[in-house]
Fold this protein.
Amino acid sequence: MADEIISEADIDAAEAAIAGTASGTPLIPSPFLTGATGGDVFLKLESMQPIGSFKLRGATNAIARLPKDAPGVVCASTGNHGRGIAFAAARAGVRAVICMSQIVPETKVAAIEALGAEVHRFGETSDDAEDEAVRLAKVQGLTRISAFDDKAVIAGQATVGREILAGCPDVARILVPLSGGGLAGGLARAVKAQRPEVEIIGVSMDRGASMHLSLAAGGPVDVEEEITLADALGGSIGLENRFSFEMCRRYLDGSLLVSEAQIYHALQVLFYEDRLIAEGACATVIAALMGTALPPAKGKTVAVISGRNIDSRRMAAIVAGEDIALGDMTLKGRAYDPAPPV
Ligand SMILES: *Cc1c(COP(=O)(O)O)cnc(C)c1O
């Protein structure tokens, strides 16, 4: 196929690039979710990556593909991509500059600085940080690595799909958190090449879901970024989007939205039932499983637990059932109850 964007060979190369650093995360059964949803549910724990999220896959592959004489890299990040780039750049001895907006939680900034990257706080939104990364790339001659609209990054994220098939060859449905679509698009590309009948559904929060709205509109649309428990899913896919929109359009079977109250409950489910710490971004897929929008799966479901980098105090507050401030909105607390909120 001339226009396939990412080839099987690209994914093979990514697998080789990440082997031993970002590969081989656990795939575990969830007895609670299996009981609650009536189908076998497995969790792909990308939260067990050394930096706590799958973003290390794409970042490692992108750094591996840099020209030898590249003076360094720059990216914008809501936290996890920057952490992946910082980790991979440090290992490769490459300079890394990470642009982050004021929305990004302080824990994520500190983690990136600890890895030796230069953090550049800029602007109020993820889109501001993205514009600044574009500017720095130009004036300093750095290579910009998009968190999702970059072929090497997408090929890196695609390796999750291959690992899911290897660990669960008869999977029927995959639920994947959806923001810029590098993860969902890459994963779906890799899975559909081997098992086109597997149903792959992206899940986003209903506050500022850029890719979801773009898929519905048939082309990239701009959204206003809102404060959400799923902070890693914020930001726009970009009106100039080149690859990730088209990949999601081609390979995803559906996209759905969940509320902040559902995400809050899903974080409690992961903690109380599976004893897992996850961040809001990936709790969206658990919320979708517990919600009513999805018809029952016709076989095994794999939910991608994409990251664990949640602020500790926020996690403690959710476990305790306390209220959470989300910008100008207060999310009402709820003591844990296995039944989802209505
Ligand atoms: C980046 C991220 C996502 C979404 O990935 P995209 O490729 O932007 O769709 C989901 N979960 C976590 C934890 C992330 O960091």
Notes: The chain is about 40% helix and 15% strand.
